[in-house]
Amino acid sequence: MTTAAPNHSLALIRLCVLLMMISRASTATTQSFKQAPKFYNSPKCASIDTDTCSEGAVNVAMTLDVTYLRGSMAAILSVLQHSSCPENVIFHFVTAASRSSSAQLLNTTLSNSFPYLKFQIYPFDDYAVSGLISTSIRSALDCPLNYARNYLANLLPSCVDKIVYLDSDLVLVDDIAKLAATPLGDNPDTVLAAPQYCNANFTAYFTPSFWSNPSLSLTFAARTPCYFNTGVMVIHLQRWRAGDYTTKIHEWMELQKRMRIYELGSLPPFLLVFAGNVGPVDHRWNQHGLGGDNFRGLCRDLHPGPVSLLHWSGKGKPWARLDANRPCPLDALWAPYDLLQTPFSLEA
């Protein structure tokens, strides 16, 4: 990992920090969140303590920042509300170390809204990774915290064997334990599982420079790669550590700094390392793209089939569209999980 970021990367960090400061000020002065109800285990649930290494725990990892805090709160509520064993869910939140002043706000907000939540917050050295980041098609994708999922195996306790990684712009409508129980098989090279979309144009995720280079275009020669969305993944952390997959992702990011081989932020390195060797997960667990494309964020419909998780990936976020009084039809499915306390809220 580089120790000093190039000038453009430092400028990127400063932009992200500025946006976070503006958002933090807005949150501190205009946003507060209601306390969520407490959810209890069903009788069949195993009893666990607060130890993250407890057998029977469902470990969930998310990034946490002020900008997407409203979405994160809704995602947490949805996980707990639909879990058969909500007291067995342990959250691992990764925050930017460069904004340590935000960590206390985030901790206090979580504790106030979810007083019984089992969680741990981990500071992530976003300055260190900034030197590896290249600009992408949308500036929001370039903030270093988007790359924190690359480092979960290093940040979380070594006893955590498997986690469910979730983005902050989604809600579950099914029991997360079902997703966490996804089998990854005996192949040590199968490090993660996610819904795959093999009808997508996989070549579009990389530049012509990538495909025209004989050595680079052979990257997928021994694999049958399919697109998968990195906002919902089941990750075997022990296998990740054993295979040193963080270094493998770094190598592709370093190459990207020398010659532009992709345009879409943190996703392509995952595709380069894992596509073609991803464990299967039913599409119901990531109805993604509800935020529209990365430029306009237009309304979209659900994919055909059942739904266990709705994901507003893309530019349009449901809370922003609701606040602007320009919601998409599916944003009404997110609204019941919104814990924002408004001046007009009435307590039952």
Automatic annotation (TrEMBL):
It holds the Pfam family Glyco_transf_8. GO terms for cellular component: Golgi apparatus. It is an enzyme of class 2 (transferase). Its EC number is 2.4.1.-. It is a single-pass type II membrane protein. InterPro entries: Glyco_trans_8, Glycosyltrans_8_dom-fam, Nucleotide-diphossugar_trans. It is found in: Endomembrane system. Residues 1-27 form the signal peptide. Pathway: Glycan metabolism; pectin biosynthesis. The keyword Glycosyltransferase applies. Keywords: Glycoprotein, Glycosyltransferase, Membrane, Signal, Signal-anchor, Transferase, Transmembrane, Transmembrane helix. Gene3D superfamilies: Spore Coat Polysaccharide Biosynthesis Protein SpsA, Chain A (3.90.550.10). GO terms for molecular function: glycosyltransferase activity. SUPFAM superfamilies: Nucleotide-diphospho-sugar transferases. The keyword Zinc does not apply. Belongs to the glycosyltransferase 8 family. PANTHER family: GLYCOSYLTRANSFERASE 8 DOMAIN-CONTAINING PROTEIN, HEXOSYLTRANSFERASE. This is Hexosyltransferase. It comes from Psophocarpus tetragonolobus. The lineage of its organism: Eukaryota, Viridiplantae, Streptophyta, Embryophyta, Tracheophyta.
